[in-house]
Design a protein that fits this description.
Length: 507
């Protein structure tokens, strides 16, 4: 037992904060209560979703996502839907071959599909988002759903997660597929909704395989025949009509800004604008897309019935890597080979364009869409180019609009409400909902609490603030445990019910 606070080291406070699920790198704010004249320093959780940054905040974010996934997966009734246009339904976008409207300069897409892919089945769609109910021989009703895993194709032989033949491994294609993976996933959901017979809803997470290629895990509400799912996977593709980006034009020199656009520094000739470069593709009957991507042949399709331990395991697995970076460091016998693999992939990702507005287009002799001064190839601000993200620059969690009928903030509020109601039922007064809120007013009508930025005066002060937050968290946890024991709630072992008072008010 430590006799004084001075004996507690930074490492000890860090470890205690992780155990208590308290943020280890909070933002500090000074709050003045104008009514009482009391001023205090309040730690605000950083909210990071990466375990390497803040294990406590990452854990809370994952638990919230688990709760969101579980609530929408096996709904028995339709969630609330907007009376306006269903934005969750994408417009038909099979077309990928660009053309020009004869009556205007507007680019249009034809409806031709590639001849080397199978056709999509067409199924009449019901206006529903929940799955059908089935009845077993013993008269029991159940509503099955599905768990789906989609992968990308091979780019070369892999051994222990790294290429066995790095020189022949197709890093260019691997990088392009990683950058454009969200487009392929989006196209898959579009196609599946046309073929499933209802408005498919999903909760999906993008995660890295051991070889660092992104893949998708998805919880799908309702059951879809496996042969139809495989047909949709096989028929889904994306072809990107960009200017060629496989051979750099400028490797040792850089185009310069002349006030209205980018020019070749040696010749003074203006680089083609984005519109001019794409128009050239439209007018060229022999032009080919810059990149065509499909899913790999490996796809895992499983039926899931809830409530069940299998459903809980699937939710835990679905959210397992959300707290990890794509290029998470590892320490084993393959660490050096893995780092070399990451370096080679990152070298491609740094210079390839991530979108029409990417500064990397200057490297390929084309001005990006809506160019601005100061653009430099290899310095696009999108995090997709970072070594940490390896092409996955967007959201890691994809949730359809009518999954649960609630936003993530509403799910968080629901969990907090459960905690507060449990405390009330046991006769325990929980912390005020509007505690230190900037919306609370004093008798003069002005805000009662005034928030200002501050910094700790010393490392010891910062340690003391975190230690106080740990003590407060422990007190709340003890109150909540006592309240549950007093009210004797029904035991619930669902995958989303982990984390204690994570649902409650945070210090």
């Amino acid at each position: 037992m430590l006799s004084t606070f001075a004996e507690i080291t930074n490492d000890m406070v860090y470890d205690m904060a992780i155990v208590a699920k308290v943020c280890v790198r909070p933002l500090l704010r000074r709050v003045l209560d104008r009514t009482t004249g009391v001023e205090e320093v309040v730690p605000i959780p950083c909210g990071s979703t990466l375990e390497s940054v803040c294990p406590s905040c990452a854990h809370k974010a994952r638990v919230l996502r688990m709760h969101q996934c579980a609530e929408g997966w096996h709904l028995g009734s339709e969630p609330e839907r907007d009376s306006e246009i269903d934005h969750d339904q994408h417009e038909d976008a099979d077309a990928d071959d660009q053309g020009k409207d004869s009556d205007s300069d507007r680019r249009v897409r034809s409806t031709r599909r590639r001849p080397d892919v199978v056709d999509l089945p067409r199924v009449p769609a019901d206006d529903r988002t929940i799955g059908r109910t089935f009845c077993s021989r013993d008269g029991q009703q159940y509503r099955p759903s599905m768990f789906l895993t989609l992968t990308l194709p091979s780019y070369g032989p892999i051994t222990d997660g790294v290429p066995s033949q790095p020189d022949s491994y197709n890093y260019w294609r691997a990088a392009m597929d990683a950058l454009l993976f969200p487009k392929l996933v989006d196209r898959f959901w579009q196609n599946l909704r046309r073929c499933a017979g209802y408005k498919v809803q999903y909760f999906a997470a993008i995660e890295p395989q051991q070889r660092l290629a992104p893949h998708l895990h998805a919880a799908i509400r309702g059951a879809i025949p496996r042969h139809r799912l495989r047909q949709v996977i096989k028929a889904t593709y994306v072809q990107v009509w960009w200017p060629p980006c496989d051979r750099p034009v400028y490797m040792h020199r850089t185009p310069v800004w002349d006030g209205s656009g980018y020019i070749d520094a040696d010749t003074g000739k203006a680089l083609p604008t984005w519109e001019e470069a794409v128009d050239a593709l439209v007018d060229d009957s022999e032009a080919k897309p810059a990149h065509v991507m499909r899913f790999g042949t490996q796809a895992d399709i499983r039926g899931i019935i809830a409530p069940s331990e299998e459903a809980d395991r699937a939710i835990r697995y679905l959210t397992k890597y959300l707290t990890k970076a794509i290029a998470e460091p590892i320490v084993d016998s393959t660490a050096a080979a893995r780092d070399a693999h990451i370096d080679r992939l990152h070298d491609q990702l740094r210079w390839l364009p991530c979108s029409e507005r990417c500064a990397n287009w200057l490297r390929y002799g084309v001005q990006p869409q809506n160019p601005t001064p100061g653009m430099r190839a290899g310095h696009c601000p999108s995090k997709a180019h970072d070594r940490e993200h390896l092409g996955v620059g967007g959201r890691r969690v994809l949730v359809s609009r009518h999954w649960s009928g609630k936003t993530l903030a509403e799910h968080k509020a629901d969990r907090a409400t459960v905690v507060r109601e449990t405390l009330h039922a046991a006769g325990i007064v929980p912390p005020e909902v509007e505690r230190l809120s900037a919306d609370v007013t004093a008798p003069d009508g002005l805000p009662r609490y005034v928030w200002t930025d501050t910094r700790p005066g010393s490392p010891g002060e910062y340690r003391k603030i975190i230690f106080a937050a740990i003590q407060q968290r422990r007190a709340w946890q003890q109150q909540y445990d006592a309240a549950k024991a007093a009210t004797d709630p029904v035991e619930n072992h669902s995958a989303s019910d982990h984390g204690g008072t994570d649902a409650g008010p945070a210090p």
